[in-house]
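User: Continuing from earlier, I have the next pair ready.

Assistant: Great, send them over.

User: Here they are, in order.

Assistant: Folding the first of the pair now:
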Amino acid sequence: MSAKKLNLFANLKNDFPAGLVVYLVALPLCLGVALASTGRPDLLFSGIIAGVVGGVVIGILSGSALGVSGPAAGLVVIVLGALETLGSFEAFLLALVLAGIIQLVAGFLNAGIIGYYFPSSVIKGMLAAIGITLILKEIPHAFGYDKDFIGDEAFMQTDGHNTFTELYYSVRYSSVGAIIISLVSLGILILFDRPFMKRIQLFRFLPGALFVVVLGVVMNGLFQAFSPDLAMKGEHLVQLPVASSASEFLSFFTFPDFSFISNFDVYTVAFTLAIVASLETLLSVEATDKLDPFKRSTPTNRELKAQGVGNIVSGLIGGLPITQVIVRSSANIDSGGKTKMSTIIHGIILLLSAIFIPFFLNQIPLASLAAILLLVGYKLSKLSLYRAMYRLGWDQFIPFVVTIVAILFTDLLKGIAIGMVVAIYFILRKNYKHSYHYKKENNQHGEVITIQLSEEVTFLNKGSIGYTLDQLPEGSTVIIDGSKSVDIDYDVLEIIQDFKNHAAPLKNIKVETRGIKGVQSVGGH
């Protein structure tokens, strides 16, 4: 299919089922992030609001074909700290509105260019790490041990456990009913992934995730009727707020308190939210574009503007901060989404289901949803990805592995930062080695050394060039040739000029420069 055919309504047969799967993935994540961010069950609906705004508002404004936005687990700690600092959710909503304005301005100032400077090895490491994290974090839900919210990406959890201790407790306190539902759900999802199933028209339009959810509700109902010990209850089910009337539903929406506009802490929180949310979005944009089978490129400045508008709207009506989120985006891609209509559809379904069928949603076992996320995690961290990165060499493989390990044992943003440091080291190391070509030959006048500078010579190269000049033998002739260079940084020119004027005469080295502006062409003894 050509990119020209990817208009919003031409691919509904692909985008609707993908949007439905994204909705099933997003629903528990929205609720889980809301509970973890606020610590208040009465504010669970703030996660739904953010999910709807991320799907519909940002979906319409964004230039990302397959990216899905919503409340992110990566901002949980920031939101918790902000609520403690500001003392009220209404003051926090004001800070969120201001954060959205900052993102909007950043988009107009072309700050989205930052997204192009994340190394590919780090982005792929992030994808693999999120896949492993999903598997490790969803196993407790698949085993029926739900002591922490779905969507927690950090190694250290809010309940005092960590990723690995949670696995131990999930095995120790597992539920047979949850395991049965998880295994059956995984079996159905794997079956639906088989090529022969995709040739059946009904199953191309109705995704396996929908059958998994419906079957999970039916199986749990049968457990309640015939074997109550196996049945999932309470925290093992989706827990969406249920309104008994229209007025009660409207009470789920909260509005910012503009009386806090003169509070300095509000602005501190706003800048923090804007920076972290923008970074997480740009990382997800880069990762989503790499997964896109059509290899479309998202305009990052437009994405920042869309995220800014989304956070303004979310803040005005009582929602959580929004970023583009790779888990939902990858679920969209894996489910066959073609355009951003799938994102918009997921937001619309999220809103309609919260209004009309909250009671049914609250019958869905988390074990069924965990199975969906387990498969998403597997697809993000396939063995073929590790083999491909290994074949690229150590310069790519080591930052890739370090990023994975760092994310697994810290959180997403800290892990990315650690991976970036390692990737930059290898970039500098490679740059150090390849900033010039060194050639040595002998003629009747003695030893002649030619240093051919590369096309781009920046301040990053001054260390290697300076070291090479210092090691030149006494009495030699050196030709520093910049004729093939498009640009030579002033720092490098300064090193060459200083060597010519001071170090070379002391070692009786004759220096000749070619095609280098700013340095005299002939040196002396």
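And the other member of the pair:
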Amino acid sequence: MTKEEAQQEIADLSKKIDHYNEQYYLNDTSEISDYEFDMLLEKLIELEKNFPEFKYPDSPSQRVGGTITKNFNTVSHRTPMLSLGNTYSKEELEDFDKRVAKGLNGEPYEYFCELKFDGVALSLTYENGILVRGVTRGDGLRGDDITNNVKTIRSIPLRLKGDYPQGFEARGEAFMPNKVFIQLNKEREDIGEEPYANARNTTSGTLKMQDSAAVAKRKLDCYLYSMSGDDLGVDSHADSIQKLINLGFNVSPTFRRCKNINEVLKYINDWEEERNKLPLITDGIVIKVNSFAQQERLGFTAKSPRWAIAYKYKSENAATRLKDITYQVGRTGAITPVAELEPVLLAGTTVKRASLHNANEIQRLDLRIGDMVFVEKGGEIIPKITGVDLTARTPGLEPVEYISQCPACGTKLERIEGEAIHYCPNTKGCPPQIKGRIEHFIQRKAMNIDSMGERTIHMLFEKGFVKSPADLYDLTFEKVFQLEGFKELSTNNLLKGIDTSKEINFDSVLFALGIRFVGKTVAEKLAAHFKNIDNIISASYDELINVPEIGERIATSVINFFSDPENVTEIERLKAAGVRMELEQVDNTQVSNVLDGKTFVISGVFERYSRDELKKVVQENGGKVISAISGKLDFLLAGDKMGPAKKEKAEKLGVSIISEPDFEAMIK
């Protein structure tokens, strides 16, 4: 490839990827599959690696991160990022309105209302349409330059479209969506880490990570709420919001212009319950005088503007009775106490349980079974107990005594010095730990055996067929067919899923082994550095801590895991079964162009291929796999158990529906 060809290819790929990014993150539309998107990005990164002179600061490859920042430079804000005055009282809002009216000498005015998101304030500087700097709020006057990390947030444009000002600053709120936060905590608990307390603090910590590649994997988002600069061509806050939308920024569609304070109060009431349905935590409403000229006339106090105020919703809480405390045993043996509550309605959902985290929390709250306790959601996604109603305590209730033995196997619990969590040390004989390790092993990010679930694992364990992940590869048709609810087809599907998992990449296998503190990212780092399992097994402590992101705790955990002869035996069994234990080079060579320009949606279960394999075959032959059925789609590749809705839609739109043999005939 010549330099001219490479430059053009990089430009074309960048344009395509930017388009797909915008469609997905701003318009909620998936025009191509995740796999195909990743392949395009991989191709761009490879080209930029070979032709670095054509890699630009606004390249979509910046989204995946990879830059290491040891120290964040302090940057002064062009205009201070002031905090707003807060109120929980609607009467105080009316007083605020009176001050505005007085300050404007009876001149007509209107308000602009928007939800107050519980995230981390960011300042984004653009020059000639390119993002050049991303800075935290800091103390309001100075913040940290975290540009490399900001570039990984896919809803923040790296290059603007339309008629953009030569230079300006946009401000917004970075946040971690609720579903991402919940998944992150599940993954942390899965590898033996303490879950994070709340999404806001997790977002703040994420933005200060040194490795921008790790930031990218946290899938942060950002809503923009203001812009400032010279010659912007806007006269009001509403105008600036519309300009941000036109330039391609992600703006929450929850704002409203209000003619007077009564409409403001209605907006507040409308969102009090509705905000719980949003994908992130909100804690109030921001009310601003809409006109910039009027804002300037009203001015500022020493700490905040006189033309804006934040109304904070009170954290919703309820009182209910603590019926019991149960104890859950995790895959790593970690014991989690759970409060069993009399059902109570809170923030639109019925709450029956709340995590108590550990023995320290129970002691801090001084809990007694039978107490009336206060439960709160507030800034937390998961309900928590915030206190006890001592005035309602029945005399004679005894303080909760934390269990000393595992509730599942009776083994005496241990508590590692410096840690708050108790552990069951019976790793090889405690049923929840055994089943938990197998559940971890088969999950999508690990061995991806999607034909098996928690219920199937439970039945296999109870029958004595499976006591470790390696036992899965010894299953026979006769054993699986015995399980309740299994027929010939489901039995074959399960065995096929297990067999297909032997092709899973080594880094996923390493994650699947369930080494404590070795999450998906750490497994990828170890696999990339050591190349195969034998090198990792024989690695010394010093060799391990020399790997990026591998600290003392992880290195010690890895050494302890492979020091156990039973774990080494398990790995030898997995090797013998054909599971990949070394990295393989991926060959992205195109086989043919027989499917050039053709688009496919793949749905259902297939005899000869997994869906990922089919995606790869389509791409190797010049076709594209997309996620949604539309009139522009060429083919619906239909397997067994395909959803009837997809078939009906394809028929209605006149899309060709083909079978697995039809597809094979096409590529031959």
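Worth noting for the second one:
The mean pLDDT is 90. The domain at 431-503 is CATH 1.10.150.20 (DNA polymerase; domain 1).
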